[in-house]
Amino acid sequence: MNNKPKVGFYSFSGCEGDLLTILHCEDELLDIFSAVDIRSFRMASSERHDDENLDIAFIEGSITTNKHVKKLKVIRERSKIVVALGTCACYGGPQSARLGYNDWEERFKKVYGSAKLTVAKPFESQPLDEFIKVDYRIPGCPIDKYQFFYALTRLAKGMPVELTKFPVCAECKWNENECLLLKGQLCLGPITAGGCNSRCPNHGLPCIGCWGPTDEANVASEINLLKEKDFSAEEIINKLRLFGGAGMVRRFGELLGIKPKEEKTLSKTQGVSKKKREKK
Amino acid sequence: MTNPFLPEEMRLVRRYDLTSDVRFFQVRPVDMDRALSLRYKPGQFMMISLAGAGEAPFSISSTPSRPGMLEFCIRKVGRVTTELFKRKENSLIGVRGPYGNGFPLEKMIGKDNLIVVGGLGAAPLRSLLLYILDNRDKFGKFYFLHGAKTPEEMLFRKEFFEIKERDDLNCHLTVDVDEKGQWPFHVGLVTDLFSKVEELDPENTYATVCGPPAMYKFVIAEFLKLGIPKHQVLMTLERRMHCGIGKCGHCAIGPIYTCLDGPVFSYWDVLHMKDLI
Amino acid sequence: MKALKLKRDDLYTYLESLKSYGELWGPVAKGEKYVYARLTNVRDVALGALRTIIPPKKFFVPPRFTMFRYTDDHYAESFDDVKPRVLFGLHPCDIHGLLILDELFLERFPDPYYKRRRDATAIVGLSCIPDDKCMARSTNTHAVEGGFDLAFNELGNNYLVWIGSSLGDDLVRLNLDLFSEDIEPEDLKTYLAWRRKRDSRYKLSFDLTGMPDIMELSWDSPMWNELAEKCLACGSCSMVCPTCNCYNVRDVSDLTLNSGVRERHWDSCMNKEYALVAGGHNFREARAERLKLWYTHKLKAFITEYGKPSCVGCGRCIDTCPVDINVAEVIRGLTGQKVTL
């Protein structure tokens, strides 16, 4: 058979909701398995080929221990293309909501007391690109299956992936929802990457930013607007950080009251990394 | 009603590399009558369509004076071009067009012509160059100045070397750097070649430039120094396009659409329409 | 143009009759707003609706639709099965909006996707009394002389029904008994009084003459940067604008990989990638540049090209932008009036 790209699915810290989203695609599952050669997918098959090289690695979950880092680096070395799947992998997820506050150890002690973990050395949850180069990001909590299919087919055909670049508001308008922001709700639609078909506003719920910030998120203006609507700074910042994680902290740390730590991965955006863009 | 968005099946007849990342493509409508009757003007462009990858606009590099075959000179930079580079000879691709205004040949005929090309600017201007050469008696004096970064990066080297030998035009080639010392002609910027331009009647000259953005300012300054009127200084511009026919909006600049009203503009257009370059 | 009269009380009966021509659509309430929806029950129609969340352009250029299905490199056209339909309740500004889309989509290189949907659709207009966000009088789009098949105008206990096309005439004949040809001198009085009432209700009034010159002179105005600082670049303004027509095209492969669809979806020049070309150059990187393009296109470019602005004064941008950047504010800014951002 095999011109088909070899693909692996991996999971770190998270609820595995992204891989579940894929497994739940009953109607398309066979097509997925015939489009690519899946070499590793723990939730779907016990068969694993962890020593071979891959064309594409889809990785969900955030990185929280030194063991993760080791395993992640091995996957990177074996894979031509690494795709961060879901918001945890892309930005750290809710478990990274307090990134940058430097209070992780304190929180850890609160939960685990003085217990010593022996299996692995834990640290504050971080997105994949803190440790390795990530080629593409498919955000979402969980991901949208159609966006995953889109990325998968593009990659399987050896083409670059360009995901939706407009914010949630665009699709929200297409769906003719009443604007929740204008109704005084704390909605992050204008600064959050679209592609979810405005899932929450369709049900009358404000956007909580679970796809992370758009390339051009005007977070400063969003914060001002929400303040005008009488939300407290704390409420706003908590909401921005809940799913924004590293995506918020790295780019908009100062607005959240955090000094930017390093510029390292700042320019990487959803989709193609800047480095790759420049190379073209 | 015909669907103007429907790509026409064309055969990729021939392809070869011009440089490490620029490839030459010969394309022909599958139907031979259609191939021979396809009309276009130098400076026009076509939308090349590859199922799964999408569509993008490309200048036509061939001349309508040699009917039957469309030629493109394409750099691998994006989604569509990456896919196009994978296509083998004899495969089918989708093409639609021609679109855009093209060069105002009716006005350029009988006039002196000066063409200045930098790098990939050869893609659209080769069409005009060959057209003028094929209709040489209809045009006045003719200068063709072409600059590339290095000898390796000069597109259509062989063809231009041959053209350089002709005595019915003044063709001058240059490269910015020649590390291996193999380049037989001038080494330096394309603007250096203006020293070879003489005996043009500026009032009756059309000067055309296409190349990397940084080049325009300097070349246009040279044109103006020669006394060529601003509305006779022509250039072809690039913009994002999804339709080629004034619908998708992406190439809008002020009141015009690059795809309908361009891509060929005069320097006067540029001056009075903000945002053009 | 011929005018008839219809009793207000007979409106629902007549709307029911229109269903024999095709699907009947009209404005219905959605929360505190309105949307165009199928009128299964004619009494659902919101006769007092001023502006729907998105304009009727959605009927002719849906937000997302398939242009082609491809298999390998063969393309098969894909047209939605558009059944005959009647759009009831379009206000004059929205009819003007459609006329502008007609210029763009039906003139040079007619767009078959638009044309099919347009051809299958009868337009039935409805007069309205403006609110404080309407500015159609300034854009001269508060009344219609064409662009509809039928146009209903409030007239006391009646509607004055203008017949704008032969299809309109057919539509009247679907229930001819409801209509009367007797226009009395009193009716003219009522009509004129209604017009005065309408015109007096416009709170927003702008002089748009010379707008292209003013925009040209404002090219380097700091206003654009000030607006850009607030702008969320969410693109909502484009989505709700009756004349914004920009779109993107993308191919979406099936999982079988050798087939798929070429789809078209609404885009906005406010999106950062709007003018990005392969190779990475962005012709409009700065948000201020994109905002300027949006407004230049409405208030300058279109006037230069067609002699009228491509703003029809519907007030949707005023109603929609979360940070209050809209055509009224921009005109105020450009003409040196106080901007209340």
UniProtKB/TrEMBL annotation, chain A:
<dbReference type="GO" id="GO:0051536">
    <property type="term" value="F:iron-sulfur cluster binding"/>
</dbReference>
<feature type="domain" description="NADH:ubiquinone oxidoreductase-like 20kDa subunit">
    <location>
        <begin position="15"/>
        <end position="154"/>
    </location>
</feature>
<dbReference type="GO" id="GO:0016491">
    <property type="term" value="F:oxidoreductase activity"/>
</dbReference>
<dbReference type="Pfam" id="PF01058">
    <property type="entry name" value="Oxidored_q6"/>
</dbReference>
<dbReference type="InterPro" id="IPR051349">
    <property type="entry name" value="Hydrogenase_assoc-protein"/>
</dbReference>
<protein>
    <recommendedName>
        <fullName>NADH:ubiquinone oxidoreductase-like 20kDa subunit domain-containing protein</fullName>
    </recommendedName>
</protein>
<dbReference type="InterPro" id="IPR037024">
    <property type="entry name" value="NiFe_Hase_small_N_sf"/>
</dbReference>
<dbReference type="InterPro" id="IPR006137">
    <property type="entry name" value="NADH_UbQ_OxRdtase-like_20kDa"/>
</dbReference>
<keyword id="KW-0560">Oxidoreductase</keyword>
UniProtKB/TrEMBL annotation, chain B:
<dbReference type="InterPro" id="IPR017938">
    <property type="entry name" value="Riboflavin_synthase-like_b-brl"/>
</dbReference>
<feature type="binding site">
    <location>
        <position position="243"/>
    </location>
    <ligand>
        <name>[2Fe-2S] cluster</name>
    </ligand>
</feature>
<dbReference type="GO" id="GO:0006221">
    <property type="term" value="P:pyrimidine nucleotide biosynthetic process"/>
</dbReference>
<dbReference type="InterPro" id="IPR012165">
    <property type="entry name" value="Cyt_c3_hydrogenase_gsu"/>
</dbReference>
<feature type="binding site">
    <location>
        <position position="251"/>
    </location>
    <ligand>
        <name>[2Fe-2S] cluster</name>
    </ligand>
</feature>
<dbReference type="Pfam" id="PF00970">
    <property type="entry name" value="FAD_binding_6"/>
</dbReference>
<keyword id="KW-0479">Metal-binding</keyword>
<feature type="binding site">
    <location>
        <position position="248"/>
    </location>
    <ligand>
        <name>[2Fe-2S] cluster</name>
    </ligand>
</feature>
<dbReference type="InterPro" id="IPR019480">
    <property type="entry name" value="Dihydroorotate_DH_Fe-S-bd"/>
</dbReference>
<dbReference type="InterPro" id="IPR039261">
    <property type="entry name" value="FNR_nucleotide-bd"/>
</dbReference>
<keyword id="KW-0001">2Fe-2S</keyword>
<protein>
    <recommendedName>
        <fullName>FAD-binding FR-type domain-containing protein</fullName>
    </recommendedName>
</protein>
<keyword id="KW-0411">Iron-sulfur</keyword>
<feature type="binding site">
    <location>
        <position position="259"/>
    </location>
    <ligand>
        <name>[2Fe-2S] cluster</name>
    </ligand>
</feature>
<dbReference type="GO" id="GO:0016491">
    <property type="term" value="F:oxidoreductase activity"/>
</dbReference>
UniProtKB/TrEMBL annotation, chain C:
<dbReference type="InterPro" id="IPR009051">
    <property type="entry name" value="Helical_ferredxn"/>
</dbReference>
<keyword id="KW-0411">Iron-sulfur</keyword>
<keyword id="KW-0479">Metal-binding</keyword>
<dbReference type="GO" id="GO:0046872">
    <property type="term" value="F:metal ion binding"/>
</dbReference>
<dbReference type="InterPro" id="IPR017896">
    <property type="entry name" value="4Fe4S_Fe-S-bd"/>
</dbReference>
<keyword id="KW-0408">Iron</keyword>
<feature type="domain" description="4Fe-4S ferredoxin-type">
    <location>
        <begin position="220"/>
        <end position="252"/>
    </location>
</feature>
<protein>
    <submittedName>
        <fullName>Hydrogenase</fullName>
    </submittedName>
</protein>
<dbReference type="GO" id="GO:0051536">
    <property type="term" value="F:iron-sulfur cluster binding"/>
</dbReference>
<dbReference type="Pfam" id="PF17179">
    <property type="entry name" value="Fer4_22"/>
</dbReference>
<dbReference type="InterPro" id="IPR017900">
    <property type="entry name" value="4Fe4S_Fe_S_CS"/>
</dbReference>
<feature type="domain" description="4Fe-4S ferredoxin-type">
    <location>
        <begin position="300"/>
        <end position="333"/>
    </location>
</feature>
